[in-house]
Amino acid sequence: MKRYLRLYLHFLRFSFSRAMEFRVDFFFRIVMDCAFYVTNLAFFHILFQHIGGLGGFGIDEVYVFVAGYLFADAVHMTLFSNNTWWLPFLINKGDLDYYLIRPVSTLFFVSLRDFAANSFLNLIIAAGILFWAMLRHPADLAASSIAVHIALLLVGVFITWNLHMWFILPVFWLHTSTGLRQLFFALEVFSERPHKIYRGVVGKLLLSILPLACVISVPTYILFEGASWELVVPLAVATPMVFLVTLVIWNRGLKAYASASS
Amino acid sequence: MRAKLFADVFIIEAKRTMSYRADFWINVIGGLLSGIAIPYFMWSWIFQAEGGGDDTLLIGGRTFGQMIAYYIACALISKVVRGSDLPLSISSDIYEGGLNRYLLYPTRYLPFKYAQQLGAMVPNLVQMVGFGVIFFFALGLPAGVEITATTVAMTAASLLVANLLYFLLTYPLQLISFWADNVWSLIILLRFVTSLLGGAMLPLEMFPAVWRDVLPYTPFPTLFYLPVQTLLGEVSIVAWGQGLLIGLAWCVGIGLCGALVWRRGELRYTGVGI
Predict the structure, then answer these.
(1) Which of A90, A152, A204, B218 has the most CB atoms around its CB within 10 Å?
(2) What ipTM goes with this model?
(3) What's the domain range around A58?
(4) Does the pLDDT value for residue B52 go beyond 90?
(5) Distances from the Cα of B14 to the Cα of A252, B120, B171, angstroms
(6) Which residues of B are less than 8 Å from A53 in CB distance?
């Protein structure tokens, strides 16, 4: 464990020094993410000029919800997005070889080696928006509830990473992941609305097979409505299950991996 | 650029993009899921909560049926306006040195790239027509929405202007590759801003009055709101003409800006990739 921690600190050092070499890109990324934050907040702000609630949330809860997904997105962008972007190229070009021979978990290495330093600054901004949304909420949110909420959002990021991997790892067999990656990005948008608006089969799917509702929506309902069985059970089941499925696909993929000819 | 060459580039690019059939269908499914299913669930929840099933309830001046028609039209039209992922090919040409060959071709770079952009748009055009017919004619039009031969013809003209405008908006941003190593973030930034201010996220009537006063003079409504409203028969010919003129004026302004950036950037270009 200590070895992995030390290794991760090296990843951080390399990532920051690399980010400093591309300063314009560093700046552009910050501006892009700020635009993402503003458009999302503006969307709900304008929408709530015409409606009274969405999925049982009022405007104050919706701001916390939106801020939650901005925060989760920033964490995902910082920790995983660069790595998930490059993974198909590593597999197709046979560059995965260099990681397979290292004396650490290959999945750990290829999933976390590139820490997006430019997104890290955005993470600070997103965290600021989350705290602003919580502070402006009329109910006094207890510090413990806020801590649990943030912890659950981090669990949500872990679920997102797993689901993202489900759509990338077929590259071991298909040799392209462009279409599936686009499909994931399209599906991911489902997590950007409170899950109670989804009725019927879609609502059930989002809490079970494709647990996108557990990423932000379920943690936000737990924050405001308390931990009921129908919220906690899907989250508690989905978290280990998605990781297990990722491990199965990854291990099967490695067996199918044929280096540069993949 | 000669019309024959423009047409040839268009056809080659259209054939190339249509050959990726798996991507085509995944793109269809993904686009429909996020562009139509999510607004459908969201607005059906809202209309149910606000009106308890009252069919005459208006939100932002639209009934539930009209609202869904707006989002379906918008999901299909926005793909045509944005084209494919091709816009980034300009920055790749500059960054990787591929611009060299275009500089040697006996034609101008910008029209050549625009012909490619139009060709790459063909799969989206096929989707728009195919699914537009299914959604609007097979499933039926909601009350208050009229799609006629005239509105379709007017929409086609709006789409041409919108597609050109979107291409010209991305052009100077991509030319920044002459100075910067990665402009992908700027293209995504443009996508966020145009989605909100162009009416792809919410119909523009829902915006506060101050925004509604200013937005018609910006390039954004020309991109999505004007073609969608035109298709749904909610724009008078005069308003449509005014919208197109404003869009064309922006095309000229942004085109000039792009030409200026090109001239400055070309001086810095080394032809070996950065």
Answers:
(1) A152
(2) 0.90
(3) 2-261
(4) no
(5) 37, 5, 20
(6) 49
Name the residue among A42, A179, A189 with its Cβ closest to that of B23.
A179
How far the first Cα of chain A sits from its last, in Å, is 32
B26 touches chain A (CB under 8 A): yes
Yes or no, beta carbons of B30 and A46 under 8 Å apart: no
Does the structure show a pLDDT above 60 at B87? no
Domain boundaries, chain B: 3-268
SS3 category, A228: coil
Identify the pLDDT of residue B274.
52
What are the CA-CA distances from residue A225 to residues A219, A244, B153 (Å)? 10, 30, 52
B193 interfaces chain A, CB cutoff of 8 Å: yes
Phi first, then psi: give them for residue A54, nearest 5 degrees.
-145, 115
More confident residue, A195 or A24: A195
Q: Which residues of B touch A35 (CB under 8 A)?
A: 189, 192-193
Instruction: Tell me the shortest Cα–Cα distance from B264 to chain A, in angstroms.
Output: 18
Partner-chain contact A187 B186, CB within 8 Å: no
Exposed, middle or buried by CB within 10 Å (0-12, 13-18, 19+), for A149? buried
Distance in Å, alpha carbon of A186 to nearest chain B alpha carbon: 5
Whole-angstrom distance between the N-terminal and C-terminal Cα of chain B?
Answer: 29
Of A35, A183, A199, the CB nearest to B29: A183
A43 and B196: CB-CB below 8 Å?
yes
Q: Is any Cβ of chain A less than 8 angstroms from the Cβ of B206?
A: yes
Q: How many CB atoms lie within 10 A of CB A79?
A: 22
Q: Specify the number of domains making up chain A.
A: 1
pLDDT in tens, A115-163: 988 888 889 999 999 999 999 999 888 999 999 999 999 999 999 999 9
Residue B202's closest chain A neighbor by CA?
A43
Residue of A54, A183, A202 to mutate, interface with B, max B Cβ within 10 Å? A183
Picking from B38, B182, B207, the nearest residue to A22 by CB comes out as B182
Q: Could you write out the DSSP letters of every residue in chain B?
A: --HHHHHHHHHHHHHHHHT-HHHHHHHHHHHHIIIIIHHHHHHHHHHHHHHTT-TT--BTTB-HHHHHHHHHHHHHHHHHHH-SSTTHHHHHHHHHTTHHHHHHSSS-HHHHHHHHHHHHTHHHHHHHHHHHIIIIIIS-PPTT----HHHHHHHHHHHHHHHHHHHHHHHHHHHGGGT-S--HHHHHHHHHHHHHHTTSSS-GGGS-HHHHHHGGGSSHHHHTHHHHHHHTT-S-HHHHHHHHHHHHHHHHHHHHHHHHHHHHHHHH--SS--
